UniProtKB/TrEMBL annotation:
Protein name: AP-2 complex subunit mu
Membrane topology type: Peripheral membrane protein
Database matches in InterPro entries: Adaptor_comp_med_subunit, AP2_Mu_C_sf, AP2_Mu_N, Clathrin_mu, Clathrin_mu_CS, Longin-like_dom_sf, MHD, Mu2_C
Annotated family: Belongs to the adaptor complexes medium subunit family.
Record keyword Membrane present: yes
Cellular localization per UniProt: Cell membrane; Membrane, Coated pit
């Protein structure tokens, strides 16, 4: 449910009303007095940004030396209300030259009232984009002498922008070389038992894009996801191609993606923003290709010595390699001395985190490396406490490899002028929470 705000108040730290706007008639005029009495004049100020007084709810946030208070008389969306406050403050700052405080509000009463009428209608948030609002609210705010002058360029084609058709991209962009950079970045989250069985495993990924394209291009992205391939085969009346398909979970898109077309054709089509942006996020829980296997063996020899043997195998292709591999092997706090033998990389004992830190700068595919260590402990006369053995942790980054198996089948760019486009696609897999119990 949207905000459906009944009133918005701007108060200073003393509780004086700087400016207010009533959007509905379902609350009384003494709402600000209730806020002062029950929130500002008590110790509850700052403990919780949501307070219910009587039949009304107060959502408030402090920005600089100003409190912005939204009063609602129904079951409103709290997250939407605070998102509105954040976006509204960003809008005001763009008009005031980067400052938002009591003085800026007092110097721009007329402009703020005009903006409040545009960004909220009968208590429901509207468009808060500074680029779009500046197309028809051209009045400049009184800027602070310490703020830098804004260099925002006017956006042409006001009708297109105001209707929200392509509010994230302006027309008239021209590049000498039209390029698209696409990165699939995945994080592997793993928890493995000491016996080698997988307790938890999933992949969280995101598709990052950087577009330097002229005009108003229309892009179409094809992935090897199961639903998309089945829909494409259905539309073209042909059997689904063999090969690995991916089931994507919890998919979220950038606002530029045409959701209607995605729901009907399962195709990611969009008019991209200019520059860098995040196209989509996803999660995968089945069919994960682990880039590394870790085989630890830790033996406690009495109270004063531990033997550690850790073997790390790379499972990805032989032509690939991992960068910045770090293996953190926990040891007891009473560690006094360590001796290492590694087949590759370097290892040392880090007393601040109670770990043996093994670093391998470059780890080729289909190879294995081994660490052997003898750990001497400080002998104590007190009763020995059992060592809990925290899990081994790994950090790494594998270029041109995806743990999910996700691949870009095609990336098509269409623009009415018909220019040629250079597409660059890159895959990166890194460790999220990669833990192996020992």
């Amino acid at each position: 449910m949207p905000v459906a705000a009944s009133a918005v108040y701007f108060l200073n730290l003393r509780g004086d009303v700087l400016i207010n706007r009533l959007y509905r008639d379902d609350v009384g005029g003494n709402m600000v007095d209730a806020f002062r009495t029950h929130i500002m004049q008590t110790k509850e100020l700052g403990t919780c940004p949501v307070k219910q007084i009587g039949g009304c709810s107060f959502f408030y946030m402090r920005i600089s030396n100003v409190y912005i208070v939204i009063v609602v008389n129904n079951n409103a969306n709290v997250a939407c209300a605070f998102k509105f406050v954040v976006e509204a403050v960003a809008l005001f700052k763009s008009y005031f030259g980067g400052s938002f405080d009591e003085d800026a509000i007092r110097n721009n009463f007329v402009l703020i009232y005009e903006l409040l009428d545009e960004i909220m209608d009968f208590g429901y948030p509207q468009n808060l984009s500074p680029e779009i609002l500046k197309l028809y609210i051209t009045q400049e705010g009184i800027r602070s002498p310490f703020s830098s002058k804004l260099t925002d360029k006017p956006v042409p084609n006001a009708t297109l922008q105001v209707t929200g058709a392509v509010g994230w991209r302006r027309e008239g962009l021209v590049y000498k070389k039209n390029e698209v950079f696409l990165d699939i970045v995945e994080s592997v989250n793993l928890l493995m038992s000491s016996k080698g069985s997988i307790l938890r495993c999933d992949v969280t990924g995101k598709i990052l894009m950087k577009c330097f394209l002229s005009g108003m291009p229309d892009l179409k992205l094809g992935l090897n996801d199961k639903i998309g391939l089945e829909k494409e085969a259905q539309l073209k009346s042909r059997p689904t191609k063999s090969g690995k398909t991916i089931e994507l979970d919890d998919v979220t898109f950038h606002q530029c993606v045409n959701l209607t077309r995605f729901n009907s054709e399962k195709t990611v089509s969009f008019v991209p923003p200019d520059g860098e942006f995040e196209l989509m996020k996803y999660r995968i829980t089945e069919g994960v290709n682990l880039p590394f296997k870790v085989l630890p063996t830790i033996k406690e020899l009495g109270r004063s010595r531990i033997e550690v043997n850790v073997k790390v195998k790379s499972v990805f292709g032989v032509k690939m390699f991992a960068l910045g591999v770090v293996v953190k092997i926990p040891v007891p706090k009473q560690t006094a001395k360590t001796n290492f033998t590694v087949t590759s990389g370097r290892a040392k004992y880090n007393s601040s985190i109670d770990c043996l830190v093994w670093k391998i700068r470059k780890f080729p595919g289909q190879t294995e490396s081994t660490l052997s260590a003898e750990v001497e402990l400080i002998s104590t006369t007190t009763e020995k406490k059992s060592w809990t053995r925290p899990p081994i942790q790994m950090e790494f980054q594998v270029p041109m490899f995806t743990a999910s198996g996700l691949r870009v089948r095609f990336l098509k760019v269409w623009e009415k002028s018909g220019y040629n486009t250079v597409e660059w696609v890159r895959y990166i897999t890194k460790a999220g929470s990669y833990e192996i119990r020992c």
